[in-house]
Amino acid sequence: MKRPPQHDKEDTDNNSDDGELMLVEEEKIEQVPFLDTFYGLSSIDPQERAEAAQDMIQHCFLGPQANTKDAAYALKRLLNALCSGRAAARQGNASALVAFLKVAQETNTLQDIQKETKVSQSKQQENPVVDAIVSDRIFVRNQLLAATTEPGDGRKKKGSEERDYVFGRLFGILAIQKSGMLLPSNSSDDMEEVVTVSKHYISDLIQLFQFKKWMKESAAHAICMLLNSYYYASEEILSDAKAIVDRLVRESIVPELLSTTLSEFSAEQLAVAIHIQSHVHCHSQKLPAPLEEAVFSVETIPTLAFALSETSAVTQPRTHLVWDVIWTFLTETSREETSTKGSSNDVRLPRDVTPVGSESVEDVLMALIQFVVTQRLLGIMLDDEAKQHGESVAGKATHERRALALCIVRNLSGVEFVSSLTGRTVLNMTPSIMENVALNSNLVRRLFIDVIGAGTATGRKGKQAEHILKPFATQVLEFIVARALSDLGNDKVDVVGSNEMCLSILRGILRCDAHFDSSTKTRTISAILETKTKQFDEQFWISYIQFLEREVLANHSAHFVDLMYQAAKTLDKNTESATAADLSKGILNFFLALAFFDCSSVETAAEESVQTSGKKKKNKKKKSSNHAEISPIQQLAMRLNTKQPYNVRSVASARFFSLLSELQIRASQSQGTNKDQEILTILASPRTVCLELQLVGAKPLVAWDESSATEKEDYSPLEIVSLICDGAKKHLDVDPSSTKARFGCGLAILASVLYVHLLSCGEDEVSMGEDDLDADDDEDREEVLSFLSDVREVYETFSSEGTVDISSLAGMCTNIISSPLGAGGRSRGASPTLLREAVRIVWTKVLTHASSIGGNVISTEAVDTLLVGIGIDRSDEHAQEDDGDEESGDSEDENGVFVEATEVEDDEDSENSDDLLSKPSNGNDDDDSENDVEVDPSKLQSLLEQELEDDSVGEELEHHEGADAALAKLIQLKQEARKAGLKAKERLELSRQIKCTLLLETLLSGKPDGWGCLLTTDALLDIAFALLQYHRRLEKAIKSSSDKGSDISLSERKAMLARITSILKNKLFKFKLSSISWSSPEAAQVYAENMSVSLFQELRQSPDKEHQQLCSSAIVFLTRCIDSLDGRLEIAKHFAAVVDEWAHRRTGKLDASFFDHLIHQNPSYAQVSLTQELAKAAATARSAFLKSEAFRLLGLLHNPKLSTGQKELGELGDARVVAANDTVIDAVISAFEDPEMKKAKRIREVIKTLEKILVFLSAKPSASHEKQLDQLVELLKQSLKSSESKGIQSSCEKVISLIHELKSKPTSSESMEVENGNEDAKDDSNNDHMQVDEAKSDDESADENESSHGDGKKKKKSKSKKKKGKSKKK
């Protein structure tokens, strides 16, 4: 019968003996035979060992067969087995020995066992000597010594045998100690015996301590455990235990183990000494020297540092005994917290003072970290400031030393660990110790940043392998964060204490590295902040932000400004808490005051104002209230009592604009109905804060006079913004949903954003006078003032007349975005985004308002303004195109479309420089070939005569080779510098134009029921054609720049190209035409015809496939704009020349992708336009490849399931395809007969096309092609025999079967005759009705032919009816 499970722990644990040897009396179980139990004690299975020990004790003491003889044998067997190294024999027999001695003492059978032992020993001796009966303690000790002493047989002993006896004695002493035999009773005689026996055991352990180096820690641990039995007894019931431990320490431990000086102590001796001092309260007398003074103190730690650092040889996660003793010395058990949490862990709190020496625990720990961990383990020399970031004292720290340091930090951080003295332990240190000791900057950098960041971009070597301790360091870091967050949501834990622990971790880590998460690629900081945000803790966030503010102001750290910015972004994620929003706005105000104001005189001004107001008031109570009434802005200014350096102000300025931009964008993307008011409130806050700061005495770093007027009118910037904002609020109060109110709100938003751009963080005090990108504050201010005046003019016109000139507003928006304000700077952050979003809002509001009024359309002037903003000037468009109609892409200038005016001059300069400079022709002087320059004196003469005309008239210049070369180089450098300047200017202009695409893209995003109705069809086509031309020029410029080498504006050109392509594909060509019309419907057809000519001309100049596809989309878009079918068919006529040019012109640029794209976009129109021409090209193209491509395209057109947008156009497309069948089949026949087309890759395409044609003819019957089909069958059979390709053979067989099926089906004429025969069988009355219907259909067709638009669908129906009528007459 299986035994019930036992509670098994470590064999040396206090509870393991009782758990393993619990007796089960309720059930009768099958016991193991007595002798077999000793084999079970050696098992590696703890459950089997416990069952064996239980059976043995049951047999010896408690069972019906209990007898002293077997008990004596069991004791001898257990003691002898302690020296066995087989499996788990030592652990199992030691645990069984503990239980054996406990039961023997409880049953008082040890005396009988002693007698039986003496009897059995006398039987084995020839001359037995009967010794007197001794006490149980002495008897057990004698038996242990006899069993663990090596036999004196004189033979040479093995090392393993010697080790087994040593460990056997160690385990035996620990088993006896755990059994409780050494605890005294109340009699004085018993106490003396206990002291004597215990002193013997301690002497035995000291001998083991001195035996071998690897026995020191184990022996020291046994001494500590032996002393613990008396320490625990003295705290509970045994009063004599203190006297016993006093004598043991004084008479045995100190003289035999601790007699050396403190500097000579090993780590094990320190463990015993510190352990005794940890329990000084359990001693009745003063500790003897050297234990009367603190062994472990601030003063002695430097002396002990070497011995403690040598314990790194013990591999983690276990630490040396001395560290477990140190934790018990510095902490005490918190029984209240242990009982509260209901855990078996030993939760320990730091003591107020150390047990000996009465020193602060935090001071001792700081000394421990400084001298042991920092200097000895990590090798950091703190005394030398030049080496505080990692210079080693005695070489590089080893992995073992770092691992020990990590274990120390782990334990101090409150992570659970297993102590050899107290079991599972948690050190619940104070937040101060956590911040200043466990996570000081040196430890964080060396143990986490340098370890976790090794092998990544933050590592020192960049590409080195990962640190071997990275998993352990990452685990410790995760444990620390989990420990700090473990108390969240626990009602029994103090929230303030939990917050302080999280804050201490954040402060300790961030003071070392403000970008800790990015340096280590972890989420340590963000995890804590996100958790505190989800379970929003107001007090935590207030304390955290205050800490960041103090670091910014005290250390002038720009990194902590970034942390405040990240904190604000994290707070903004919590949309439910009003406190989070207030804290985020507080950070915004802090950035504003820090970056743009000097608050050093605020506190003095505030005190003077308070004193002045206090003198005027006689009531003292009022005086005290004046001191208390300080606004939050004034408190903020008083905290900023020192002017920060430029780098901090610059970063704060950038983060201010970025945070303000994010708040604006988040408000604009909200789903609320009052989001315009919300945006206006957000943007009005900085203006209010600026006024309050100036009222309390803060001075702007770059002062602007609010009372001064702008250049145009006598209005200050503040007055303009206030005027517009007040007007917007009035409109919103009247009707917030009206487009008028929304447009007024948009103007107020733009004015507020422009006002914020007046703020400046000043100049760099260090680099005064040097070139700086942000040194153009005066020019920026003038632009802002000019834009504010423009906004005011728009507002006044709108307020008085109720309308807005869209053209002028488009120009104003374009100027704002393309100005230097839209480019930003290093101190402006996301100000371009802020400004661009404000302009977008205004532009959207004005378009919405214009569409709501009705009757207005976007004028040509407004469209031209938008196009000029992105670099398209339609006034010079035709002049630019005249030169490049038939030129290749290489004809473009090297500097693009923006420096055409300087093309001639640059080319002449480059030609002159190329003529003047030439490398030496001598191939032997390779080393000097790069530096030597040969100059043509005659050409240099002419060049100098041009530049120095006044000085060289009538004289011949004398030349010197070195001077000529230097002058030529100087001229070349001047030309290169000028070209570089032009390219930089072009790059800047391109970046501004990219931003202006926002306005055009917004305009084209209008819906039919919105501002999409403001556009006309011809305006859309004009925009499309202008964008196509610009797209082509950009592509040529990019290709030219790529061919000639590096170009600084290449990335901007590519970005502009991508933006133009996106506008065409995603906006313009997808524009819904249902809500717009032509500006002049009468001239629509003529305009469309002219535009088609221009588009096909643009197609012929296309530099690549992408542009051809855009041209294809533009042509399809043009056909959508034409209402009549006849107009579309007129445009389709141009495809004949396009296909002919593609098939026959060798220098043409057209590609088959153009036709692919057309077929994909409008398949029916492609059938109408391309089928007949492609059929001709398949037979007459200039190369086999083009013929193959023509067949492939024909295969795409011969698809009976092509999607048709209009039924009429689809029927016409099918008719065109059917009409071209003869030509197509003739082309197929000629392809089979063409030798060049008989190649496998060519003929395969022909066969595929033929297969699709046959499927099409099967679905849509037409006239008979019997002769052509028979000829095809013969050609296919020949190809089947001659081809070696199995694929071609199978295709030929399939096509032949399709031809037979097609020939078996009736043709269109045959099917018509069948129908006529059925109709003739009808009676004459039906014929009369058909004649009447015929006459009616003739009249209807005549009316339809006279219609204005000439609907082709109706014509086709009337013609088909006429044919039916004639056939019926026949």
Automatic annotation (TrEMBL):
Residues 1-12, 1319-1339 have a biased composition (Basic and acidic residues). This is DNA polymerase phi subunit. Pfam families: DNA_pol_phi. It is found in: Nucleus. Residues 879-895, 902-914, 924-935 have a biased composition (Acidic residues). Residues 614-625, 1352-1370 have a biased composition (Basic residues). InterPro entries: ARM-type_fold, DNA_pol_V/MYBBP1A. One of its GO terms (biological process) is regulation of DNA-templated transcription. Residues 1-20, 608-628, 874-936, 1303-1370 are annotated as: Disordered. Keywords: Nucleus. GO terms for molecular function: DNA binding. Its main location: nucleus. Belongs to the MYBBP1A family. It comes from Fistulifera solaris. GO terms for cellular component: nucleolus. It comes from the Eukaryota.
